[in-house]
Amino acid sequence: MSSWGRLYRSLRDPLPAESYRLGMSLRQVEQDAESVTAVFADGSRVRGDLLVGADGVRSTVREQFLPDIEPNYAGYVAWRAMLDESDVPADIRAEIFERYTFCLPDGELFLAYPVPGRNNETQAGRRAYNIVWYRPTDRDTTLVDLCTDATGRRHGTAIPPPLIRPEVTAAIKATARALVAPQVAEIFARTPQPFFQPIFDLESPQIVFGRVALLGDAAFVARPHVGAGVTKAALDAASLADAAAGDDLVGRPAALSARAAALRQRAGGARPCKKAPISAPSSSRASSARERSCTATSTTCCTPTIRAARICAAFWSARAARRDWRPMVLPQPRCAPRPPTPPASRSRRLRGAGRPTRR
Known about the structure:
Number of domains: 3
Low-confidence stretches: 266-359
Radius of gyration: 23 Å
CATH topology of the largest domain: D-Amino Acid Oxidase, Chain A, domain 2
Shape: globular
Distance between the termini: 25 Å
Oligomer: single chain
Structural class: alpha+beta
CATH class of the largest domain: Alpha Beta
Mean pLDDT: 75
Strand order of the largest sheet: 6-7-8-5-9-12
Number of helices: 9
């Protein structure tokens, strides 16, 4: 797996320093038949032919043109943690560092895997171990508490990591030790500041407004389970580049709207479809609480990413229904730690007992 920092640097470094302005807060977008202007909080104005709103799920650009479109909380958060490889205990590093690890507490999903280090290092000993832990979190009670800082101030549905209260951090580390395998629980507990990301769904019914276009999460949010957020944004950018190369966007901005409509039509229709749950089929194997699969709900079919997500979900559902295949996880805490499996004999999950079976 790669990391966000590694991807960011590969895209950021080729840009001239004067083309990337830090600390700028967009306040308003103005446009006419000839140009579009970004107005910033410090009073500065930047004029151009086309403005691309790639400013994320809480997009200021989208809010101006689609004020009634709000992200919908999906009912759970992703706790995230990353520990430098050098800080992982040697025995745990030898046992799991090179593996993609799953733990499945009831109704939750815990993933752990190696990534490049904080400065994009890929050499052994200088990498990092990344954790993503999906947990149901009630919006009106638990999430409110998580997003309240030590002074009592509430931060809506997201809080800056440094403001997470120490008792919240201590509680989630204790929960990790109680619910997931001891090896990854130890890595999670050693992370100085785990933080959480509320999961949202969002679909923009329109992505072009004259000389303004939305891109990436500002236009549509794909849940992180399919690992397609960066791919989706890249495809959006490629489609925009194709439109700019094939049409006179400067002299005829309506061409951008036409290309956006065509893209949505090719992707499966401009209108959202009815909500369709994506989950593994029921089976005797999946009946116990510990084996239960989470259900994700897709609210649209108008992008290639969602089609890919549905295909991916169907694939994993079919694999989960087969009796001869099971995803590997580490033993749950009640199981005694076991020696690492030799590389030539990868283990698969033995449901219930936590013992490996051999290929």
